[in-house]
Predict the 3D structure of the following.
Amino acid sequence: MNELLTGLQLEISLYPLLGYLLGAAAILLITAVAEKICTFVLRRFIREAENRGIAGLGNFLAAFVKPLRYLVYLLGIYLAIRYLPLTQSADIMTGQICRSLLIIILGMGFYDLCAIDSLFSEEIRNNLHLDIILLPFFSKLLRFIIIALVIVLVANEWGYEVNGFIAGLGLGGSRWPWRPGKCWLTFLPA
């Protein structure tokens, strides 16, 4: 009789856990469907922008196709984990991880936007009348700045003190253009 009661208690305590797991699985399934729909709609917008001659919008959206897919999956995983009955410390850790991944995903989109062959680089070259040889330099410089910002933001999210690093970048950045003297004049148009 005692074994029967133990089995019933185990069986009764498994039902809520099974319900939570099925709910989380349903959220993940809905997320997979939503990701496919978002990708389809975004690719449709890109195609429509290119057909109408709005190349800037098409390139901007094309840079964020993969990050948007990752963002939808991240949202689904976050909602599925939040649905589960976890402790408060696990919820805090989940929030930190998801915010860090969100920063990385957005940084990945801006990193792709600053590629050498993107329209953003072409617009900078045309507006500033830069030589095409300088385009890879500025593209790599922007990508380095984006990577540095992503690292700083993620470190700040995890509680590290990054004010000294930011101040050091500011001092180094302000000192660098004055060092070569008139070397900058060779980069600027006459």
Summary: Residues 1-88 form one domain. The CA atoms of residues 76 and 85 lie 16 Å apart. The longest helix spans residues 2-52. The chain has two domains: 1-88, 114-190.
